Amino acid sequence: MLVRIAVCAAWFFAWPVSAWIDVALIAGAMAQETAQEMAQRQTIAVSDQEQEIDTKGKTQAAPRRDAEPAPANQPISSKAALAPKAEPFGLATERVSEGEILRKWMGVQLEIREDKQVLARCRESASSCPLAARHFLAIVDEGRARNGRARVGVINREINLSIVPTSDLAQWGVPDRWSSPLETFTTGRGDCEDYAIAKYVALRATGIAPEDIKLVVVRNTDASENHAVVAVRLGGTWVILDNRWLAMVPDRDVWRATPLFEIGEDGVRQFVAPTANAQLQDRVPASF
Q: What gap in Å lies between CA 216 and CA 220, rounded to an integer?
């Protein structure tokens, strides 16, 4: 559905050896003039700091040179301190109350609940656990054994390598179908939203808070189609998990993609951006 010095030229001049005395005298004079010029510039700089005139002609008081510097560990202000971004891509969102994306998400949520019941029974009795469920649980447990970025990375890698990219049309005979993790692991095939849903459920199962993980539908501007990824917040930065590569890319480094929808436990929300995202639709079919 829904992807990404310097030539140093040196000029050498040689002066005749016979003129070395003249060169020394000239160099001394130049050094003296340079020292005088630097002293003048420092005087001008100090004068400029005492009084600065802005473009509106208003006089601004220059900072006192004898003021004590602030402690190194003291923030400039609470507003200047970096705060975790509330939403992926730093965009505001608004709730979606209808549409195809919401309908499909509500449908797959029911299937995810059924998957959780199967996985719970597998924890109690491994002998009766389906192969797909055992495979999925093994990935979850591998993620639980790690922390932070390593946890997210192993889930992203293992799920990317566990599913063969296949379009819904080729697998199911329909343009678009959202599958739960166990259905995807049973067939071993899926497209981008199937990868994303499996990662979302696995990462939630490892203990990642719901506010720190989102399914995101973006518009792939190169291919003019929608694409599903996962956004995870790590240390105040959202990283994007894509089935097309193993690297975890910060949202600010994602190019040629317009974020459309954010999906999570609180439902579906649409990104509010200067561009008319609403015009980029509730069309679900995407690349795989």
A: 12
- Model-level pTM? 0.69
Per domain, the residue ranges of the chain are 88-280
User: What is the average pLDDT value for the chain, to the nearest integer?
Assistant: 76
What's the gap between Cα 50 and its chain centre?
44
Contact 208, 146 (CB under 8 A): no
pLDDT tier at 275 (50, 70, 90 boundaries)? low
Domain over 88-280 is classified CATH 3.10.620.30: yes
Look up residue 244 and give its DSSP letter: T
Express the helix, strand and coil content of the chain in percent, nearest 5 each: 45, 20, 35
DSSP of 190-231, one letter per residue? E-HHHHHHHHHHHHHHTT--GGGEEEEEEEETTTTEEEEEEE
- pLDDT band at 273; cut points 50, 70, 90: low
- Here the tokens at position 113 are 């609940």
Tell me if residue 235 falls in helix, strand or coil: coil
Q: How far apart are CA 58 and CA 52, in angstroms?
A: 9
For residue 19, what is the DSSP state? G
